[in-house]
Structures are given as structure tokens and as C-alpha cells.
Design brief:
The complex is a heterodimer of chains A (460) and B (562). Chain A is an alpha/beta fold and 460 residues long. Chain A is built from 13 helices and 19 strands. Chain B has four domains: 67 residues, Elongation Factor Tu (Ef-tu), domain 3 (Beta Barrel); 69 residues, OB fold (Dihydrolipoamide Acetyltransferase, E2P); 237 residues, P-loop containing nucleotide triphosphate hydrolases (Rossmann fold), CATH 3.40.50; 107 residues, Bovine Mitochondrial F1-atpase, Atp Synthase Beta Chain, Chain D, domain 3 (Bovine Mitochondrial F1-ATPase, ATP Synthase Beta Chain, Chain D, domain3, Orthogonal Bundle). Classes of the chains: A alpha/beta (460), B alpha+beta (562). Chains A and B meet through strand 5, strand 11, helix 6, helix 7 and strand 19 of A and strand 1, helix 1, helix 4, helix 6 and helix 9 of B. Strand 5 of chain A pairs antiparallel with strand 1 of chain B.
Amino acid sequence: MSGTPRTYAGADSAAGPLLTVSHAHRAVLGEWVRIAAPGQPARRGQVIDVSRGATVVQVFEDTVGLAPAGTAVTLTGDIARAVVGEELLGRVFAGSGAPLDGLPPPVGSARRAAWAAPLNPVCRRKPADFIETGISAIDGMNTLVRGQKLPIFSGAGLPGLELAARVVADARTTHGEPFAVIFVAVGLTQRETQHFLQRFEASEALARSVFYLNRTGDPTIERLLAPRLALAQAEYLAFERGMQVLVVLADATNYCEALRELGAAREEIPGRRGYPGYMYTDLATIFERAGVVRGAEGSITQLPILSMPDDDITHPIPDLTGYITEGQIVLSRELDRRGVFPPIDVLPSLSRLMGAGIGAGTAPDHRRWSDQLYAVYAQGREARLTAAIVGESGLPPADRRALAFTERFEKEFIDQGDTRRTIGETLEIGWTLLETLPREDLHRIPEEAWARRAGRGAAT
Amino acid sequence: MTGARVVRAAGALVEASPLPQAALYEIVRVGRRRLLGEVIRIQGEVATVQVFEDTAGLALEEPVESTGAPLQAELGPGLLGSVLDGTGRPLSRLAEQEGNFLSTGTVATTLDRARRWEFTPSAKVGARLAAGDELGTVVENEGVVHRILVPPDVSGVLAELKAGSYSVEEEVGRLQDGTALRLLQRWPVRVPRPVARWLPADRPFVTGQRVFDFLFPVAEGGSVAVPGGFGTGKTVIEQSLAKHSMADIVVYVGCGERGNEMADVLEEFPTLEDPRTGRSLMNRTVLVVNTSNMPVAAREASVYLGLTIAEYYRDMGYRVALMADSLSRWAEALREIGSLLREMPGEEGYPTSLGNRLGKLFERAGRATALGAGGREGAVTFISALSPPGGDFSEPVTQAALRVAGALWALDASLAHQRQFPAVDWETSYSLQAADVMPWFEQHGGAEWTGLRRETFALLQRDRELREVAGLVGPDALEDQDRLILETARLLREFLIGQSAYDPADASSPVTKTWRLADTILRFHREGTAALAGGGTMATVDVGGVRRTLSALRASPEGTPT
């Protein structure tokens, strides 16, 4: 839509972030609003409820000091839009879309609705192209593919953001296709964003990145806007410019907090733990914007970071996210304390699209190799608990072996410090660890896979 | 100005006035873009409408037009193989018209008007026809005969009926009272299609999944709730059932789920071979897809649409499997709409009518004799995935489903973490219909099916107790007899309950193969028990040998011993 702007002098009431205008003419749902009050910075808002008696505007900025009577409310006749274009690469914006890098606002190639229409499911292509992140626990056991949305479930004090930064800096496309990184900070502290930006400035990634930074002190509603501006840009680059786009969103928990805060301001009936009942649908309108489209070269891969409140994976935020995303990478406090980096607990981690990305994309026996690692590691972790009660000597021999494997697996496979590993290196470490065990412990690897392994070993 | 106008709009809800003649669940067209909406509340002249499309950009005072009819499914040849959104629009046609992204207000009929079908009449002119009587047939897809039936609300003497090539809207004949007969009929999705009588649930819905067929079988026409936290393999199970279960027609409702998963289904199903006909699986499948980011009111409607299509094929005498993935998202849609209506919420914010409405969905499953001459028997088996928050089954949607479902297939996260798939928790799962279908399995699977099943449950139960003890004292402290039980239970978990959807030789297990695997494991246990009783030790029990036998059995698609 685009209509004519109408300005009204004086709003009728204000409550929290909501402003009500009773005499607005033909207000439009979702319409973008400008609010001017004398002696105060300009504010923006969005129409969320229209009726004959009242137009309710949700104000984006802080409403402290806003006097409804003296306010001029302009209905712009347009909805929230994002400026998109290749010229945005290398630039830094606020969650509102305003430049933060001291350069003029971009003209862009197009303006797109921020709250975009959903992708028609029949136009999607099944994501299947392997992304080598350089992280063994991901590449080997929870493989990421192009078009996937794979969140990192982190926790207070856990290095979720660092892991994402590593992935972004190290991720490679196999055939040198153009690619871009879009980083959306949602309610992050100054320190966190600086840290992330510094990692970028050190690498060459900066020129092919766009940053949307909504920091802790910035308006709450921009936490809802920033990811959508970023994704409109991502969709443009991926589906119209054929780029492989990786979107990192941190922190999804802050996003959900903002959603709850605004829901409460609208006096909505809350769902679980006060979060709005539509949180699942709302999160889906973000995460579902990952994907690969038929007939387009590019892809959007999302790597959201989410802090699990109190490390609780059943909390509504990780829970609803897990139902939307295609798996999750779960960080473990225990591994982190032992100095393992990345501290990924592979047991609750999962990549639902792994099957499509491995095999032809990596190695023929990748699935069995991974299943076997999972099985022995799970057995070893259980044995570790039993050993804590009966002592290691009380374990049956197979459990004792699994336990020894588990110790080495965490030290040699999961823990990789600053090293980037190719998928070949990752697989080799896994095989080497498996070979410390007798064949009778390895039910998931058939003879022919061992033969292939032996054959390759002899060839190289 | 005359005509109804938008007097209020907020989220998916719109109030329109004046609409004094509006009826509940009537379809209206909202605004200049003519968004599809449904009346869900009437107060005087003001009708509250839930809109099935995105309302952003809707202005006050835009026109609202009533249609006089509720949300209806278009039923007729051409349904099979199609991919519909929650309101019945074919998504591929929308893509042709609109491109990659779904825009609003687009009209597209479920059935293609341009396509022509060869109609072969079977009813005789002059005959008195009642609801459900067969008029004739159309070959819808290779191997699928589509019976054209007298609609449930029509009867009379047949005046005219001609063979020929017709589009779905053309008249194929007429009754003496002038009622036109077409290949196409419409049915309001929220109303169950009538049957002549319901039949007992005494034959199984064979799934090809050992854990279900052997331990928790359901009857044809039964209903199952499949709850599981995320990552427990619900979707893989639903897809395996769609591929391998004994059903003539599959209706798959992707309700509020992932777009990429639907892309997977959409790419995979057409390439999959129907194991019985050798043709594409898509030939006998209808997909209803409303992904999580599509409008929430249409998500609510999608399950009803799926049920109506399933009932339509049931009435032709087909065995229909209806998969809904997942009903939790459907319930959440109810909650979102209830919250917009400012209804007094019940448990966890869900509307207090949740149990009632969920019950009505499940009650549409069943095996029945269809209306009409010939006594056609068909069935709708309803398999409903649930996504309980945090994997906690005590939540309202799972609990409401359990009150009405005939079986529970509970999926467990800790099993999934060990990569034990299907991750069915045998302690929590149950089937109320197992006893009814045991005679069939005894006859078709193998003798002593019931006995083997009972033995398996007893061993698994004992295994659990022993593992608790072993966790305290270490397995070495156990008696040999008990260690044999642990060993047998491990075989049961690995070879009988465990089944890989990705292993072509084992993705589907015929009931004879299931029986043979169970029989082999339990025979090993009986013989081992006897050997130990005769003074042998665990060291003499040939675990490796039985493992090799079982591996070979499992690797053989038919489960024939080598």
C-alpha cells in the first residue's frame, strides 16, 4: 500500500507504548506512523488496532515525557519498509534502519515490506548443500546445510556468540559462490556487539556483511523490527542477487522478552510464563524466512543464538524455537567449565537436515560413523554416572571401554580450541577414536564400511 | 453508503457492520483485496470475522461482502496429487499466479476447471437414487478409481446421465426434479460427512513399523495421538506411515510446521514408489500445507479440510490414513484466536472448548459403511502428532487428545538422544485397540503373536527393574539369568523396536518379518534360560550368533532367513 500522509493534532490517550487517536480518518492496519512532540526527538510507531472510535498506535521509542495533547500524529500512508540493496554491504545500521556508521542513509535498490509475505511452500527447494563450518561437533555430527535454521542454545556466560563468530569467520562455500553475512544484534550489550564487530574487522568478512544493531538501551520495539529489516535484505541478496546469505541473530531470548513486554502493554491475555500465545507464530515469521527457493541461486541460512534462561531447555523460548528450527546446537556448562571449546553437548544437539547434506556431500559412511559415535558416547556418559556410584572398576568391560572413549572424545573431538578442521580431518579423528574400541562394541558400522575405511587408509 | 464495512481491525480479527443476516461460520470477503474470512461471532449487526490471510494494509471502512455459505471443500477428481493451503487453494497454482511469496486475496479453486475427465456412468436412467449411490466412475490417477457419488443431501429419480469427457463443473446428468449432477461437489468442512453405519474396529491399520504393529497396534478407523518433544522423530514417523502403511489414500496435513520439511515431503513423495502399485506415492496422496508462518486462522481450518477430504474418499470405499502434524499447532491457533476475541481462557490460555473441539476432530475417524447402495466399507484412520511444550505430556492439548484417542504412541527425548528410533517409550505408550486386532495378527503375522507380545512386555519390564539394580550395584553383581534378560532386552530394543527409516531394506517391515524377528529373539531367550538352568553360564550363551541371525533377518526386506 501507499497512500497519502495525514497529520492529526493531539492524541487522546497514552498508556505505556500505546497512543490512541480518536479522530483519525481511514487508518490502515500496520500503517507506519510519525509522532512529533514539541521539544522532543521524533518518534515512530505502527497502527495495531483500528476502529471507528479509535486508532491505536504502538510507539517504537520510549514514551517518557510524551504528552498526548500536544502531539502531532502523522499516518504516513505506508507500511514498515526496509531499504535493500547490494550497496548496504559493509555498512552498520541501527535496529530502526538508520545508519550508525556516519555515512548517509542508503538509497538502495528497492524498498520491501519488513513484515513480509510468507514463502509459498511449493516454491521451496529442499536444503541439501553441506556447509563446512570448521567445527567438528557441527560438521561431523550436526551438519549444517544451506537454507537451514539451526539455533545455538547458549546460556548466561556460555560462548554462544563466540561460536557464531567463529562459524561466520570460518564458513566456506565450496565453489567460491558470492556470499554475505548479516548480523542482527537484538538487545545486546555494548560489550557483546563490540566484541563481535572486532572479530569481523580483523577478518575480510566486513565488506560482505551488513550489521543491524539494536542494543540494550535502544527502543524495545526495534528489537522486533531489526530482524525483519535484516531478513528483507537477506531475501533480496539471496533470491534476487544469487548470494549465499548467513544470518546471525543474537539474542533470540531478548527478542521474545520484547514480544512479551509489548504484549503486556497491549493488555493481551498471556500464555505460558507470560509470553504471548502467538509467540510460536511470531517466531516462525522470522525463522521460516530461511530457505532455498526453486529457480534461485542463493540461500538464506539462519544461525540464531538463544540464551536458555537458567539453562532450562524446556523454557518456552528454547522450546518453541526448537519446534520451528531444524535442530539445535546445545552448549554445555559442564564442558565449558572444563575448558572445552566449543562446549557443544552433542547428545541433545540435532540437525534435522543433516541427512540431506552428508553422504555424497561428505563421505559415504558419514551417517553410520555419526550414529556410532553417538551410541558409544551416550553409553559412556551413562557409564560415567554409574561409575560415580559403583566406581569405574564396578563397570562391565564394555562400559569401561565406552567411558574411556568418552573422555578422549570430549578432549580430542569436541575440544578443538582455535583450530579450524576440514570435514576430512573431523571424520579422521572420529574414525581414530572408534578404532580404539573392539569391533564387537561397534554394532552400527557394517563390514563394508570397515572395508571402505581400510581401502582408503591403504590408498592414502 | 450501503453494504457492510470494516469497523474495526486488529491482528487476524476484523469487525464488520452492518451484517444483520450473517450466520456463524459464514465466509465473507474482507476489504478491497477480498481477503477470505469466516464469521465467528455476531453481536447485533456487528459480525466478528477471523481472516485467513494477512490483514496488514487493511483500512477502516473498506467493504465486506458476505457469501452466504460456510467454508467448503471442493470435492471431486483431481484432488489426489494436489497440494492445498488450509483453505483449499492449490499452492502450485498460487505460485504460478503470484510467484514465490504468498500474496493476499488471491482466488484459486481447489480443482482445476480446465482439466477434463472421462466419466463412465454406472447408474441407470430412471432409477431412484439416494444419497451416496454411485453415478459412475472416473479414473483419477493410474490405479485409483474415483467414484462419483450422489451428494449426501441429494436424492431423486435419475432423468439423464451421459458418458463423456467433462470438466468438474459441467453437468454429467440430471435428476427428474432438475437437480444437476456434476463431478464436483462441495461440503462444509466443519460438518462430518454422514455414513450409513459405523463398523467395529476389528482389523488393524498395518503400519510396517514393528514397534507399532507388534506392541501398540491400532485398528483401521482408529485414532492415535503421537506426542513428542522436538527432535523425537514425530515427523519422520508420520512420513514413514504415509509411505508404508496399508492405506489406499493418504491425506497429510502439515499444520503449522516447517516449510523446509514440507519441501522435503513435496520433493520426496512424487519420487517415492508406492510399494503396492509401483507408481508414484503422490498418485494417492493429498497434501494440505499451512506452514507456521502462514496465517493462523487458515491453520485452524486446515485440519477440517483434511478430514473432509479423507471422509470423501472413505465414502468411496477406500481406507484413508489421515496424518496431522501437528494438532498442537492447531490448538495454538485456537488459543491465538480466542485471545484476540478476549475469551475467558482455560488452562494455559487455551479456550475452555479445547477438549470438546479436539474430541470432535477425533470422532470423525472410524470405519464405516458408506451411504448408498452396495454397502461400500471405508475407513479414516487418524494419526495425530502433538508437540507438547518441553516434552511434558501433562499439558492441556496432549491430555485432551488422550481422552479421545484410541492409542498413545509416546515419543521420548532420551531415546532420541541415544539415536534409538523410532523413539517410542514403550512404558508410557498404549493401545486400547490391541485386543481387537490380535486375531488378525495371529492369522497373518504368525502363531502365538499375542503370546510373543506378552513375553516381550514382561521382558522389557523386568529389564527396566534390573537396570535400576545394575545402576546401583553394577551388572557384574547380577545373576546369569538376569544378565540374560538384560541381553535379550537389548536385542529387543535394537532389532525389534528399533527400525531405521533411512535403511531401504528395513524402512517397512512386513508383519511376517516382524513376527520372525520377535520369535528369534524370544526363542534365544527361552533356550538361553534353559541352558543356564541346566548349569551353563553366560559365557556359553551365543549372543554373537543370534546377533548375526538377526542382522541378516533385518537386512532382508521380507525377513526371510538366509
